[in-house]
Write a structure and sequence with these properties.
Helix 4 crosses helix 11, helix 6 packs across helix 7 and helix 16 crosses helix 18. The strands form seven sheets. Strands 2-1-5-11-12 form a five-stranded mixed beta sheet, covered by helices on one side. It contains 27 helices and 24 strands. Among the domains are: about 200 residues, Biosynthetic peptidoglycan transglycosylase-like (Penicillin binding protein transpeptidase fold), CATH 1.10.3810; about 220 residues, Beta-lactamase (3-Layer(aba) Sandwich), CATH 3.40.710; about 100 residues, Sandwich (Immunoglobulin-like), CATH 2.60.40.
Length: about 800
């Protein structure tokens, strides 16, 4: 017969292929095959002896032990995962087909085809978890049937034997139970987050309707939750991920033919409204769900829901209660006074990294402000509170707190004209919070008073990438795209978490040691055995002296007094407290972060919808809240003095501008720091040979020249009060490019206009200080610019020599 002939040919080919294998390999193949058959036989024999309970036994099992979360004393119960378990069982025909099909599509697409176990899916999950295949580590290959077995009978046994039992029991359950009964068990048992178990209770909780009445889009949301109910919670910080998973569910349903294209389009576009309902019996809710999500990432959602863990957290509940009280009271006042309806606060112990308090909104149960969103974990722009990281990098690079830069309105975009002192299109000329400019300033005063222009200059000196590296070393994880920020980074152009910012400031408090942030002291299993315990895994990420310099500046009340006043909310008489405020340019975020060696505290105020507040600085909006909490916290965590920085051993040999002396050589004119030092190695003592080669040089020099011309120099003004400021004498200018020339001058000269000559050929005239013109070179080689100024008493002139090549 044809079939027999075909099979015969196949056997012949197999036989020839086998005999083509070397004898030693044939022997190994025979051994492997025999061993596989023997293992399969043993497994089969063992499987036959394993009994499977009836469906009634599964349904009537005892409820698993609940995980309990406590404060740091172990006495205050913050949350019981099953403390008020909500579960309403319904028959299969009372569950919407949308829910059934959505669940099968995302959890087990071949549920109605397999016999309870999918070997290939199981193998794929094993390979991923072993790192031998790409995919989500920790993913499972379990069928819905296996999940029913695991959820009802085998939650505590984690050995390979448990997995084998799960497979065998799933296979047996499939033989004695219908698919619909198994799916009904799953839908009535699975966790949808918090205390919500079963699809009926979930439908009522989230949408205010029974499971039979949900829409297709609502069903897709429900099917999205069981994999990670805390992370995908519609009330948490990952709503975008939940929306993405809902869309994935709908795509799977469409691909599997459960819904039409029209149904798919309508459900994708549907705007689902979740019903918000306060959860009773929970303390410190934002902190609790932060802890729970971390636990689920470590141990899995099943373990947290069912395995009776006892979790001792780092929370100081006394501080937490005070923080919640203050945040709510101050946020309500801010809503009336500043249009800032929400606020948050975090307190961390710097020398351990332990979270002492976390308030994620003015009221977790306030539906009008999205109170369940934890703003301490939200990514917001930090304003000037980011500046200490940039200054820390400058100190590390060799600059000192006494280094001088000029606070003058400056154009920082190299392709824009130096005299264009506005921000527009692609041109960037930032202003200070008060629209005032102070001339020469030390880095100490600039940071303490939160002056913007010097901060942007410091960021340029150290480099954006280096500043981000410093922030990352201190624990900031969200600044992953250095090319996105530019010089606006120092004024809060990136987005960060309040929790990470407070922890990063804690590195300064801990004198350069970073203690990883943790909310956990101990986790014990249901047998009271410790499975996790706090260990200090600190590392030094910043030199001790650099950290001390930052703390010394941020706690210098005299240095910050010109901006904040001598008796501001930032000042604690007789107590060392370092503090920095931050307000975004558009007044959407107000920050304040401060610390002592024992506690670091940060507060944020604003609106969850990112709308603007009334235009006031953080010192008015958020500082009173922070100060009230700090006054309370410092009683419980008494402050210690900061250790002052050691004297700089190289001080006497440093360039004068690094020692606060910006005008010690008047014969050379008045210049900003790029004239005096090499920005990569400021301590070298050797000024740049050709500072004009720096793309920022002319842009910084122009406002300095204007400022210098407005000062009274007397007999010390270079060349009797008049000199060519640009190009610099001895500098080199690239051939083919135009350059700008201008002068430094004493305003008492009464200059009316300045005429310029390149190699004694007239090239232009200007009648506006600092009398700038643009020159196009006509030839390579040595060149001279001669400037002739007209004054009421006659002409004066000055020259400078340079090279065009």
């Amino acid at each position: 017969m044809p079939g027999e002939h075909t099979h015969g040919k196949q056997r012949s080919r197999l036989s020839r292929a086998f005999h083509a294998i070397p004898p030693w390999a044939q022997q190994g193949l025979r051994f492997t095959t025999l061993a596989t058959i023997m293992c399969a036989g043993v497994f089969t024999a063992w499987a036959l002896l394993v009994s499977v309970p009836s469906v009634e036994t599964i349904e009537n099992r005892a409820v698993s032990e609940s995980t309990k979360i406590y404060d740091r004393t172990g006495n205050v119960l913050l949350y019981d995962v099953h403390g008020s378990m909500r579960r309403t069982e319904v028959p299969f025909d009372q569950i919407s087909p949308f829910i059934r099909n959505a669940t099968v599509s995302i959890e087990d697409a071949t549920f109605y085809q397999h016999n309870g176990f999918r070997p290939l899916a199981f193998l794929r999950a094993v390979l991923v978890n072993l790192g031998l295949r790409s995919g989500y580590r920790g993913q499972g290959g379990s069928t819905i049937t296996q999940q029913v077995i695991k959820n009802t009978l085998l939650t505590k046994d984690k050995t390979p034997i448990r997995k084998a039992k799960e497979i065998v029991l799933a296979l047996k359950l499939e033989r004695i139970t219908t698919k619909d009964e198994i799916l009904n068990l799953y839908l009535n048992e699975t966790s949808y987050g918090g205390t919500i178990y079963g699809v009926e209770e979930a439908s009522r909780y989230f949408f205010g309707k029974s499971a039979i009445d949900v829409t297709l889009a609502e069903a897709a949301y429900l099917a999205s939750l069981p994999q990670a109910p805390t992370r995908y919670s519609p009330y948490g910080n990952h709503r975008d991920e939940l929306n993405g998973r809902k869309d994935l569910v709908l795509t799977r349903m469409y691909d599997l033919g459960h819904i039409s294209e029209e149904d798919y389009q309508l459900a994708t576009a549907e705007e689902v409204v979740f019903r918000e309902q306060a959860e009773a019996g929970i303390k410190a809710p934002h902190f609790v769900f932060y802890v729970r999500e971390l636990l689920e990432q470590k141990y899995g959602a099943d373990a947290i829901a069912n395995e009776g863990l006892q979790v001792i957290t780092t929370l100081d509940y006394d501080l937490q209660q005070k923080a919640e009280e203050i945040v709510k009271e101050r946020a309500l006042a801010n809503e009336q006074n500043f249009n800032a309806e929400n606020a948050g606060l975090v307190a961390i112990e710097p020398n351990t990294g332990q979270v002492l308090a976390m308030v994620g909104s003015r009221d977790y149960f306030d539906e009008d402000i999205d109170g369940k969103v934890n703003v301490t974990l939200a990514h917001r722009q930090p304003g000037s509170s980011f500046k200490p990281f940039v200054y820390a990098k400058a100190f590390e690079q060799g600059y000192t707190p006494e280094t001088v830069v000029f606070d003058l309105r400056t154009q920082f975009t190299s392709h824009c004209e130096p005299q264009d002192l506005t921000t527009h299109d692609e041109c960037y000329a930032p202003v200070n919070y008060d629209d005032l400019f102070r001339g020469p300033m030390t880095l100490r005063n600039a940071l303490a008073q939160s002056i913007n222009v010097p901060a942007v200059k410091v960021l340029y000196l150290v480099g954006v990438t280096n500043a981000i590296d410093m922030a990352e070393r201190l624990g900031i994880t969200s600044l992953t795209d250095a090319g996105r920020y530019g010089l606006t980074l120092v004024l809060g152009g990136g987005e960060v978490q309040l929790l990470e910012m407070v922890a990063a400031y804690g590195v300064f408090a801990a004198e350069g040691e970073r203690h990883p942030t943790t909310p956990l002291l101990e986790v014990r299993d249901s047998d009271d055995d410790t499975i996790e315990q706090y260990e200090d895994t600190s590392e030094r990420v910043l030199d001790m002296e650099i950290a001390r310099q930052v703390s010394d500046v941020l706690s210098d009340n005299e240095a910050r007094s010109p901006t904040f006043g001598g008796s501001s909310a930032l000042h604690f008489p007789g107590v060392d407290v370092a503090v920095k405020t931050g307000t975004t340019n558009d007044y959407r975020d107000a920050w304040i972060i401060g610390y002592t060696p024992r506690i670091a505290v940060g507060s944020w105020a604003g609106n969850n919808d990112n709308s603007e507040m009334i235009r006031r600085v953080a010192g008015l909006i958020v500082a009173p809240m922070w100060r009230e909490f700090m006054d309370y916290a410092l009683v419980k965590y008494p402050p210690e003095d900061f250790t002052p920085p050691s004297p700089d051993p190289e001080w006497d040999s440093l360039p004068p501008v690094l020692r606060g002396e910006w005008n010690t050589n008047p014969s050379m004119g008045t210049h900003d720091i790029l004239f005096w030092v090499n920005k990569q190695n400021p301590r070298s003592g050797t000024p740049p040979q050709n500072p004009q080669s720096d793309s920022q040089f002319n842009h910084w020099e122009y406002p300095v020249s204007v400022w210098a011309g407005q000062q009274t120099y007397g007999s010390t003004t270079p060349q009797n009060g008049f000199s060519v400021a640009s190009p610099l004498n001895g500098s080199t200018i690239p051939w083919g490019l135009s350059f700008q020339t201008w002068v430094s001058f004493d305003s008492s000269l009464g200059i009316t206009q300045v005429s310029y000559y390149l190699n004694n050929v007239f090239v232009g005239v200007s009648a506006q200080p600092p009398y700038l013109i643009e020159v196009q070179p006509s030839a390579r080689g040595p060149a001279t610019i001669r400037a002739v100024a007209e004054t009421p008493t006659g002409n004066i002139e000055s020259s400078t020599g340079f090279t065009i090549q």
